[in-house]
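Service request form, structural biology core

Requester: graduate student, group of Dr. S.
Request type: structure prediction, single chain
Budget code: on file
Notes: please return the result as structure tokens.

Sequence provided:
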Amino acid sequence: MPHPVELLRKLFNLSPELLEKLSAEIKEKRMPKGSAIDGNKNVQQNTYYIKKGAARAYYTKDGKEHTMSFAFDDEYLMTHLVLNSIDIPLSIKFMEDSEVICIPIRSLSYKMKKEADSNMLEASMFLNSSLVAYNSYLEERIYTLQCMDARERYDWAMRRYPRLLEYATVTQVASFLGVTRETLYRIRSGKY
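Core staff response, request fulfilled:
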């Protein structure tokens, strides 16, 4: 998938002026394997686009990690939409060396509200396109959790994230699927 700004340029015919503004706001970072972005404020300020690499979003409750989502090459990783009003320890951990595009969704939203010019309409389309992409994923995830049994959820996760077992532990995958580790072991051994 091309860089989000390039994709939007093709989809929406963005003006050079807005492309310059967006490019100034969007930061590309290299995140080494094992590095993390911790805390609600740090995580929720941005939408993260994993250009290349692997990452996991999770929260900690009662000393236990609960995996919310994974993202691999050419995928968005957003958490502020889900946890905007809940104060829980939230983190993103990079499971391999990753190239990440940080889109400051909060500051862009604020600027869009503040400015009422045609560039802000284009910026709104930019933000909406990333939100639509993530909304599609969330609907798929909700359907999976509500309408599929444990084996079907596992099969879905393996199709959706073919590299998942290379990077995530059994505990992380079980948490993501909403099953116990024992159930996941049974599924993987064919005894479920």
